[in-house]
Design brief:
The complex is a heterotrimer of chains A (257), B (310) and C (65).
Chain A (H helix, E strand, L loop, with lengths): L1 H15 L2 H21 L1 H7 L16 H24 L4 H6 L1 H6 L5 H34 L5 H28 L3 H21 L11 H11 L4 H27 L4
Chain B lengths: L1 E12 L2 E12 L3 E5 L6 H8 L7 E6 L11 E4 L11 H11 L4 H15 L14 H13 L5 E5 L7 H17 L1 E6 L2 H7 L2 E6 L2 E7 H7 L3 E7 L4 H8 L4 E6 L4 E5 L2 H15 L3 E8 L2 H9 L4 H6 L1
Parallel strand pairs in B: 3-7, 3-8, 5-6, 6-7
Antiparallel strand pairs in B: 1-2, 1-4, 8-9, 10-12, 10-13, 11-12
Chain C lengths: L6 H24 L7 H10 L3 H10 L5
Classes of the chains: A mainly alpha (257), B alpha/beta (310), C mainly alpha (65).
Chain lengths: 257, 310, 65
């Protein structure tokens, strides 16, 4: 089974170069940052000496669900950056170095090669997101207040679709360009563009994948999945499928020369 | 029996043909050298045969397997093979073997056998990043053979190696040609003469001569005269070219080589000219052209320097 | 200051950061070539939390690792 062969090799490489270690660890660190800083906010302010003598300032503790949303926002900044940087050379690097030549002279279908590489990256990203959000959930429950496990899983699955979309964009640009720098630049540009446009036109583009986090916040507050979230998820999944097909087609026409 | 037929194969980049209407076939069990100066289009041709790039037009047909993925029948070694340097040699061979539809067990056995065959078994568990150039080239040959291809194609297999490495790889190729059909490219005539039985001489995207070594040799056996002078020979070139019996004049390092139509007439005419003009001739030699001369004549306009380096 | 900090809560974070640094240093010791001098990367990994090791993993290594 060629697909598994490539997929396993991807994971072996990620294990040998410690990608399977450092990406999950960084997501865990990102995940615990917000529950901890929320919990210690009074002490932190105090230590800065910002409060005048005798003044008591009530810092409202956000609802526990909001803390998880804050963690998601962390993933949406630094997490996305890491996802883009760790995936920028998945295919482009192999083509630049020339290893891809030795793989593609073997009877391997392009869609096998591309989908196995996509799954390899997605695996690390999904596990990292899961562990990161799990840490955030654990610390939030410990320090701030209860969030149901079901809600945590909802956050993970919905937000995971958005990160999968980021991975897919990166893979798509990987098939278009040979320079990992170019790939990461374009992927970041697209992600930032989607987020910015969605935020400015949030009342029109309610279905935009870039509005995943506000929709998730609504979901926690209302206790049910808003229709916009389903729309954004469907659009994301459809885009992923289209991009994967486009990647294969592009890759076929882009010669290894 | 013909194993591969190439018909009107053309590759055009930005409107200029790099490979121009190639037409040849390869017999099963033969060893063919694709010979030509750098830039002749050898690599492009091989890459099309290997399925890495798509021809602009033309047809490549594997006689036995008209409908299948031809890559399954081909082993290909690029000019500068690159590996996953973090893998060890055996891991890499098993990996590409599995990609060529071998089971893990088959791939593993075949990998060991091939590493022994090409002489790198003792480094099978070493990271490829630590391999020398010759070891990488041999690993490259092993990866090309892992799925027992019907046709083995090597692109400039020895050009990046030191003299010892090239000797070893050339000897290995001589052994391999007993077992499989071999097509390799080179810009060095001697390597082609050394290993191959057949020749495809390529220049500026076209095949300008082909056949067995002997037939090409015979066909181009024409008379030549080499002249050496006490002084710089350039002064006499124009004069000699003016002679009707002289076809062309090639300036060599230490003299001139003349291709002539008729040896007797030419000898008379040149000696007469030399006598009358009191040319300081130090050496006058009559001979016949070798393959080397032919190759030089063909490529001397743009690739002579390259040939002398090699 | 920070007398209210419960070390049981912070300790896992410290352990994770330590693992990250150690793994980065192991990788650095195995790599033949880096962009920039190795000693500089050692300092970056040790001094800058999280970002130091991450920067090393993303841009520090040359070639296939």
């Amino acid at each position: 089974m060629q697909w598994l062969t490539i997929f396993k090799r991807e994971n072996l490489e990620a294990a040998r170069n410690f990608k399977w270690v450092w990406v999950p660890l960084v997501f865990i660190i990102l995940g615990v940052t917000d529950p901890l800083s929320t919990y210690y906010l009074p002490e932190i302010l105090d230590s800065m000496g910002g409060l005048p003598e005798g003044a008591t300032v009530d810092i409202p503790t956000p609802p526990p669900g909001e803390v998880l949303i804050m963690s998601l926002s962390q993933f949406n900044m630094l997490g996305v950056l890491i996802v883009v940087l760790m995936s920028m050379g998945t295919i482009s690097g192999e083509r630049k170095s020339g290893v891809a030549e030795l793989v593609l002279v073997k009877p391997v279908h392009y869609h096998t090669y591309i989908s196995a590489k996509w799954a390899g990256t997605l695996g690390i990203v999904a596990v990292s997101l899961f562990l990161g959000l799990l840490s955030s959930w654990y610390y939030t429950n410990l320090l701030i207040g209860d969030v149901a496990f079901g809600q945590f899983m909802q956050l993970f699955l919905f937000y995971g679709v958005w990160l999968a979309l980021v991975v897919t964009f990166s893979l798509f640009f990987n098939t278009l360009f040979r320079s990992p720098g170019m790939v990461s630049f374009l992927t970041l540009a697209v992600v930032i563009l989607i987020s910015m446009v969605s935020n400015v036109l949030s009342h029109i583009l309610t279905w935009s994948p870039g509005l995943m986090i506000p929709h998730l916040s609504t979901m926690l507050a209302e206790g049910s999945v808003p229709g916009e979230l389903w729309a954004a998820t469907s659009i994301s999944l459809a885009t992923i499928v289209i991009l994967l097909i486009a990647s294969t087609l592009v890759f076929r026409t882009k010669e290894m020369a | 029996m013909t194993i591969l037929t190439v018909h009107d194969l053309t590759k055009t980049y930005e409107k200029s043909p790099v490979v121009d209407r190639l037409h040849f076939d390869i017999q099963k069990g033969s060893c063919v050298a694709l010979l030509g100066p750098n830039g002749a289009g050898k690599t492009t041709t091989l890459r099309m045969l290997a399925g890495l790039i798509t021809p602009t037009s033309g047809r490549i047909a594997f006689e036995d397997f008209p409908d299948h993925d031809i890559r399954a029948q081909i082993g290909y070694l690029p000019q500068h093979p690159q590996f996953h340097n973090w893998m060890n040699g055996k891991e890499f061979l098993v990996y590409v073997g599995q990609l060529a539809h071998l089971s893990k067990k088959e791939a593993s056995e075949q990998a060991e056998a091939l590493m022994k065959r090409v002489g790198i078994l003792e480094v099978k568990n070493q990271r490829i990043g630590k391999y020398s150039g010759g070891m990488k080239q041999r690993l490259g040959i092993a990866q090309a053979m892992i799925h027992k291809p019907k046709l083995l194609m090597l692109d400039e297999p020895v050009s990046s190696l030191d003299p010892i490495g090239r000797r070893e790889v050339l000897n290995l190729m001589k052994e391999l040609k007993q077992e499989t059909t071999l097509l390799f490219s080179t810009h060095i005539l001697k390597d082609a003469e050394d290993v191959s039985d057949e020749l495809l001489l390529m220049h500026r995207g076209k095949i300008i001569e082909s056949g067995t070594l002997q037939s090409v040799r015979d066909k181009h056996r024409i008379d030549k005269i080499s002249l050496h002078f006490q002084t710089e020979p350039d002064a006499y070139v124009a004069d000699l070219e003016g002679l009707e019996v002289v076809e062309s004049v090639l300036r060599e390092k230490d003299g001139l080589t003349l291709w002539v139509k008729d040896l007797e007439q030419a000898r008379e005419a040149i000696l007469e000219r030399a006598f009358l003009n009191k040319w300081p001739v130090t050496q006058f030699e009559v001979g016949r052209t070798s393959l080397e001369d032919l190759f030089m004549k063909v490529v001397n306009d743009d690739a002579m320097a390259d040939h002398f380096q090699a | 200051m920070f007398e209210t900090i419960e070390w049981g809560i912070i300790a896992p974070l410290i352990v994770i950061e330590l693992i990250l640094k150690i793994v980065a240093l192991i990788s650095l010791s195995r790599t033949n070539t880096t962009y920039g001098p190795k000693w500089l990367w050692i300092l970056i990994i040790l001094i800058i939390n999280t970002i130091g090791p991450v920067a090393y993993f993303i841009v520090g290594r040359r070639g296939d690792g």
